[in-house]
Specification:
binds alpha-D-galactopyranose, six-stranded antiparallel sheet, eight-stranded parallel sheet, 402 residues, Immunoglobulin-like, 2 domains
């Protein structure tokens, strides 16, 4: 072989080895964080601005005693309103409801759980507490010293800075979006610089299509919509509007249709079951938002159903796509790593519906073994058109296998 060519081959194989090494380093950095959608609990949906250190510890205790931790719910995320004042050096301190953040982090870690916290790129959080604007690196360092493992970074008052930018550039809305992306990147870099793996969760209600740039600012998940609330209408509106976002979810990066409301009392058990079904099919983060000290047996059965959790956490990391929609009925499917397909049947009707699915359209032209996941029952081998009987505001979750 010509010497120059040999040299070129050596360089090519060296550089591909170097590339493989680099790739494996970057994968190693990601593995502990987000190979599957994060699971845990967040204080906001139940405690809102009243949350205390004692509430968080009690929730952590419940996560252990109910089996939630062992089912995968490991993040314990303190949402807005933990913040106190900054000292003369600009270091952020917690307020009187959170006497010692480092001690809280230590407590959570001693239980085999992870510690999440909340801030904003703006001057103020949505609750009017201190945001991180101008203190990004300092705050990231403080979080790392407290043992924080997760940051939810909520746009809130940064929207004012974007509005000013929009006013200054009325012909170019991208300028305001860029300002937001830069602010999110700044915190992403600050977190990375701490050297501690801190899961980075963007919360800006889907503004500026974060699914397209979230990974580039170091985020592992991003909100796709405005806030959820504890009603079937709001939950279904959010969950069923995610059909186009499937290409953006995968190991290391997840769409976030907001936290769970299961157990907060505003929906019927079958509606909460639909909520959990939809979130699992969407490969959404599963962040419970209820009072864990007062869970009914039905709430536990929904949050702790291992088969449903396994669908959410499937290592292929695919988000469901909508197979079809007809009036108030829709059918969604999520391919699983073992070749099976999880299928959800939904109706927003006040009446029950018989929803047909053509198994051939799901890749089962020669029939499929059908399992009803919530009932925990094998329905046998079916071919052609399968008709699922779905109760009003209800759901059916199937797994089809060869
Ligand atoms: C926003 C977020 C919520 C919650 C509150 C806290 O509304 O979307 O999830 O964090 O702020 O103030």
């Amino acid at each position: 072989m010509h010497t120059a060519m040999r040299l070129r081959n050596v360089i090519v194989s060296l550089s591909s080895a170097a590339a493989a090494l680099l790739l494996s380093f970057s994968l190693v950095a990601q593995i502990p964080l987000a190979q599957t959608p994060p699971m845990g609990w967040n204080s906001w949906n139940h405690f809102a601005d009243k949350v205390t250190d004692a509430d968080v510890r009690a929730s952590a205790d419940q996560m252990v005693s109910t089996g939630m931790r062992d089912a995968g719910y490991v993040y314990v995320n303190v949402d807005d309103t933990w913040q106190g004042e900054r000292d003369s050096s600009g270091v952020i301190h917690s307020n009187g409801r959170f006497p010692n953040m480092k001690a809280l982090g230590d407590y959570l870690h001693s239980k085999g759980l992870k510690f999440g916290i909340y801030s904003s790129p703006g001057m103020k959080t949505c609750g009017g507490y201190a945001g991180s604007f101008g203190h990004e690196a300092q705050d990231a360092k403080t979080y790392a010293e407290w043992g924080v493992d997760f940051l939810k970074y909520d746009l809130c008052s940064f929207a004012d800075q974007m509005a000013a930018e929009r006013k200054a550039h009325p012909d170019d809305p991208q300028v305001a979006t860029q300002l937001m992306i830069t602010a999110y990147r700044k915190m992403g870099e600050a977190l990375r610089s701490t050297g501690r793996p801190i899961f980075y969760s963007l919360c800006q209600y889907g503004l500026g299509e974060p699914w397209k740039w979230g990974p580039s600012v170091g985020a592992q998940m991003w909100r796709t919509t405005d806030d959820i609330n504890d009603t079937w209408a709001r939950m279904a509106l959010i969950g069923l509007s995610q059909a186009d976002l499937a290409p953006y979810a995968g190991p290391g990066h997840w769409n976030d249709p907001d936290m769970l409301e299961v157990g907060n009392g505003g929906m019927k058990p079958e509606e909460y079951q639909g909520h959990m079904t939809l979130w699992a099919l969407l490969a959404a983060p599963l962040l419970a938002g209820n009072d864990l000290t007062k869970m009914s047996e039905s709430d536990k059965a929904i949050l702790l159903n291992r088969e449903v959790i396994a669908i959410d956490q499937d290592k292929l990391g695919k988000q469901a796509t909508r197979l079809y929609q007809q009036g108030d009925m829709s059918v969604w499917s999520k391919p699983l790593s073992n070749g099976s397909v999880a299928v959800g049947l939904f109706t927003s009707s006040w009446q029950s519906r018989d929803i047909p699915i053509d198994l051939a359209l799901l890749g089962f032209a020669h029939g499929a073994q059908v399992r009803d996941v919530w009932k925990g029952q094998e329905l046998g081998t079916k071919a052609g058109n399968f008709v699922g009987h779905v109760p009003s505001h209800g759901t059916m979750l199937l797994v089809l296998s060869r």
